[in-house]
Design goal:
This protein is α/β, with parallel strands linked by helices. Helices cover 42% and strands 11% of the residues. The strands form two sheets. It has a seven-stranded mixed beta sheet with strand order 1-7-6-5-4-2-3, with helices on both faces. A four-stranded antiparallel beta sheet has the order 8-9-11-10. β8 and β9 form a beta hairpin. It binds pyridoxal-5'-phosphate.
Length: 463
Amino acid sequence: MQRTATEEQQDELQLQRDAEARAARYISSVAEMPVFPDAAARRQLARFDEPLPDGKGSAKNTLALLDEAGSPATTVSNGPRYFGFVIGATLPVAAAAQRLASAWDQCASSQKNSPVADKIEKVAAKWLLEILDLPRESGVAFGTSATASTLVCLSVARRELLGKRGWDFDSMGLQGAPEIKVVVSELAHITVLKALRILGFGQTRLIKAPVDSDGRIDPARLPALDAQTILCLQAGEVNTGSFDPFLPLIERAKKAGAWVHVDGAFGLWARAAPAKRGLTSGIEGADSWITDGHKWLNTPYDGAASICRDRDAMAAAMNSDAVYSTASTESQKNLGIEFSRSARGVPIWAVLRTLGRAGVAELIERHCSMAARIAKALPDLGFELLCEPALNQVLFRYGTEAQTRELQQLVERSGKAWFGGTVWNGEPALRISVSSWRTSDQDIDILLNTLQAARDNLDRRSQ
Ligand SMILES: *Cc1c(COP(=O)(O)O)cnc(C)c1O
């Protein structure tokens, strides 16, 4: 029997409402769910091991499976007590804006493809430069991740430096090109190394800049720079949250004619918070920066931005209008990697519009205060604090290597909170990162109580 258009529309709306109701149920339970899914929930994932269906199934049933087997097996990073990495939750307005934009299903390549996406992303780009106080003439591409955004910035950097040597990168590529040197922090994020590797900068040829005990590049030991060098700096080291000393480093780089790129995946947001802004002094002197929305700004995945001071250089490198024609610097497809793309700037716009400068500053400063509170409490509970937190990261350990690992396991199994392990100075350590807008002071109480209980448990066993 043929279904009528109205019947099909009814079904579609019903399905949307069903999804909405399930999402609402999920959101209202994030404070109670085990933060890391327990073994029973993980076993239910076997329900997805079905053969590829031959024929048509039911959309309603597909959604039901997704929710019933899927939701309980989530890591509750959209909750208040997930302290792993710098994951961040999703602010309600960001989730809501994303939902509406997904109904639009825009291909946000250019104004021609989507006038609305083009407009909103232009506003989002302008606001991003204002709140991060970066050169207002910069080009901004909203991409999938800090990793992909790094790829964009570093490819622009290389093409420009080669261009200055008279090398036409677009026509000649890399075969026989003059060598471009790359200087990176000893503690550069793995994704910066990955982007460099993908671009063909061999890992053994990278020049490592030594860092001090807090993980900042030491200006006194900065390797030599020249006009054929890309210097990669960092705003927010993942373990300590520390910032490279931008002022002296960028001054040296500018004198040498080098290109300076800054990885500010989460740390760049310190610039939007008066109490932490000092950490970023001089950062505006760099040539390119990346940051994530999906971490500290609490927007959904995949939301990140690459920012290049020289917008024309960015558009020339990322040009997808036509090779050798001048690219419009107006279109996202000419500033970032993707051609067909979703309007990733929309949730970022929605958060900036709703929180405003004051709200973003408050979010960042609140998380930093919570991290400071945790850092202050840990030594009294018998934990070893490994450095004073610069930002929202707390690095610590407990007793031996084995005890440190076991402590993480005990907290994970409690279901009350989650944080991950890391390696610091060659030894296992633990890292708590405060980055969810949902985290309250009571959640920090629960975290500290959970840590204390886990410690007591370990102590009893070792007696
Ligand atoms: C998370 C992170 C990255 C990578 O970001 P993605 O968005 O996951 O690609 C890069 N650098 C730092 C410092 C990070 O914390």
